Amino acid sequence: MSVAFCCTHFLLAQSPDVLKIRQYRQANEHTILSEFVSFLKLPNIVGDSVGIHKNATFIMEAMKKRGIANVQLLVPASNKTVPAVYGEVITPGATQTIIFYAHYDGQPVNAAQWAKGLSPFEPQLLSNSLEQNGTIIDFPTADKVFDPQWRIYGRSASDDKAGVMAILNAYDAIVKSGMKLTVNIKFFFEGEEEKGSDFLHEILQQYKNLLQSDLWLICDGPVHQSGKKQVVFGVRGDAHVEVTVYGSKRPLHSGHYGNWAPNPAMMLVELLASMKDENGRVTIKDFYADVIPLSEMEKKALEAVPPVDEQMKNELGFRKREMKDHDLAQAIGLPSLNINGMNSANVGKNASNVIPTTATVVLDLRLVAGNDWKKQQQRVVEHIKSQGYYVTTAEPTDEERSKYDKIAKITLSNGYNAQKTSMDLPIAKQVIAAVQSTTTESVVLLPTAGGSLPLFLFEQYLKAKTISVPIANHDNNQHAENENIRLLNFWNGIETMAALMMMK
Amino acid sequence: MSVAFCCTHFLLAQSPDVLKIRQYRQANEHTILSEFVSFLKLPNIVGDSVGIHKNATFIMEAMKKRGIANVQLLVPASNKTVPAVYGEVITPGATQTIIFYAHYDGQPVNAAQWAKGLSPFEPQLLSNSLEQNGTIIDFPTADKVFDPQWRIYGRSASDDKAGVMAILNAYDAIVKSGMKLTVNIKFFFEGEEEKGSDFLHEILQQYKNLLQSDLWLICDGPVHQSGKKQVVFGVRGDAHVEVTVYGSKRPLHSGHYGNWAPNPAMMLVELLASMKDENGRVTIKDFYADVIPLSEMEKKALEAVPPVDEQMKNELGFRKREMKDHDLAQAIGLPSLNINGMNSANVGKNASNVIPTTATVVLDLRLVAGNDWKKQQQRVVEHIKSQGYYVTTAEPTDEERSKYDKIAKITLSNGYNAQKTSMDLPIAKQVIAAVQSTTTESVVLLPTAGGSLPLFLFEQYLKAKTISVPIANHDNNQHAENENIRLLNFWNGIETMAALMMMK
């Protein structure tokens, strides 16, 4: 075989090693899930230093119990509340070092939004997903087995405590099954991913020597929507632009002044409509100009991605995708412009007969390899200017109001660039082969994920490569209420992580 | 002189009658304002039946004290909490009957939004408007005079307790100055105008015989922005259309699905942008088709309206009006389409990286003579259909979602048509002449106001004519926090109402 993405052309099989890992897991399901549930019971809201420290302590204990060496907190000098948890296992004779990354902090929660009987930090077992009429069931007694379709509901069940636990149990399974690592492994569990990893760069700099490796293996996010395992070689970058346009200084009666005074909501509507054509393509000048074309290998990988458009459209309840000529895998390979939110005065019961004074939109720019986030923001600014707007960064003064027909206040927040690792690298091929060895289905290879992570930091501070191997079910409600992990995904995740620790 | 709107061509003078009214007022300012302030202290929030009844009782007492006959509550059979207050004065030999209309209910209040030291129902005297750095001052002792630039701040100070008090004091001034009415007068003070006059039609039907007249004289709203008195012959009708468009059933991560999943905010933006051209004209088919052209007299009146565009643009802080070819007086003579409010997901600190599930807009349609409100709403619906939307009145079902590319839920709320009285009628000329007799400035004659009142009810149920003669300052903050009346406007209002009671 040449490279793994053509693996649909021959018989796929699971390796004997993987079957041993599975046997170990099957024999230890109750213990594994008991520890996982205890972990999920610890509130881990990002930014809550007390909760974060309890979680870090829990992980350190779990690591020490497994005989992992050099367990410690990596603490950024300027913020001691967001430690990463580190540990390592040196393998005699190994020439490669892989750092397994997951994060243990979770998104903020609104318990009131969770379904009846569920609560973010009181994990529950369900017979299926809520959408498929799953109901709460008791955890089975030690003599009973777990149905792999069951799910555990709780904050971070999938994002990303499942990652932490899959990695630790994979190591356990290898050791306890009498198998051997093929590489040195290091563990790095981050504690502030959900806030944007503001201090990650400090940790990488401070612990530069400790964190040398051949690859960071990122275990975060969901498998492919088709249910197949996937290896993801990049992430999109991200940047935001908030725009507010202005009408009258005070709300005007829409009868007395309607269609005489400028309506900022209508102004914003016209401005935003000018940013896309009828096929969903962004019309801002040079928006797609810097995109580095896909390599031949990436193109072939994309062609092999199982089509999920119809499945996802049915699941999500719409019929027409935004970009006429691009399916999901193609669309996320392009820079994007999305409205995250838009507001002007009120709708619903608070609506009143006014001409609003302002209208605001938050635009989300996703970036791919080749894009520079500041340049991309600037293109949006230039486009707004080209539509006749005077652009400012503050509330317009009376003088500005008297001088310009159209005024936009633009707030450019911090962003970061995309990151991509070449599929052609020898270590990339090792990763693909390892994941493929765990499944009889072809592994999906994605040049980039649609989402964003600050993976550029690893390159910038450590010159390190990154590849993501996610494990959660795609319908895991990540970041929202009713977050969950399907047990089968967790079990498969353990096998995947173990195969990576024994990569050939 | 032929008709009054050409009165700029000759010397304007105030009539001797008006000067007598003024003398009376000057001699009684303290008494008049003391009663007005007591009235303003009574909370009158529309829908609060207890407050409304206290106000009605206060007015009845004030009428009886003045010797007005047949004072009574007119109570709609199906809602006893919203009585109108009625009274009458029959003038021997008079052949005409004028009903003076004002309303005593007020808009809801949010005391926290009022400026420091001000409170909706604790009226205060200020040395000027807040915008012109007015400060709170004590009411002067009985030996001191009131500066006419002073203002009283409180809910309904201008809208519309000033109307009630100007009418009652005008009658008082005539009687106490030994002058005579020339017409029979009836008083009609409504108690639910700010909620849309839902039961007014019942009152008009039940008390049909009592409410016969040659004219309803509506004393509500502000004088012209130029500061000149105005007579207004019509109001625009009003109707609303709320539109919600749909994307995915659940919020999607704007990274994972950005620019693949449809973004309802962007869909709404494109839909709304299709409704207007670059000159602010509505592009919905036949939107302006039914407008009855202005009569020659109305055209001349419009030409004579003092230009206020520059003044108002400065005051309101913008430079470019919405419709390129229409000044304020012209713009409000057309049917309008305004965005009252627009929302999709969140902006500001609650913004998140989502593709919203829905986007909603509330459209306000103002209507002029010739428009039918249901037909106008239907034109908006047809336009939305013409943009490829499937239109429904409920949340879309899964079946509908799978069947249609674009789905809009449309809610059509109740509206009403415009109302206009001809400027050519003899009684219209009498009104114009009466108002003109009170001022050395030319009176502004407006074919229609921009705002809406359900004046069609008077025609529908009583076959009655209506003409509006407003008295408040245009910067009175009607409906909002810091509502106020400038004393000069109140004094002038008394003179105007008196002149109308003595119209020739």
Automatic annotation (TrEMBL), chains A, B:
GO terms for molecular function: metal ion binding; peptidase activity. The keyword Lipid metabolism does not apply. Residues 235-387 form the Peptidase M20 dimerisation domain. Keywords: Hydrolase, Metal-binding, Protease. The keyword Cell wall biogenesis/degradation does not apply. InterPro entries: Cyt/Met_Dipeptidase (IPR051458), Peptidase_M20 (IPR002933), Peptidase_M20_dimer (IPR011650). Pfam families: M20_dimer, Peptidase_M20. Signal peptide: none annotated. It comes from the Bacteria. One of its GO terms (biological process) is proteolysis. PANTHER family: BETA-ALA-HIS DIPEPTIDASE, DI- AND TRIPEPTIDASE DUG2-RELATED. This is M20/M25/M40 family metallo-hydrolase. It comes from Lacibacter luteus.
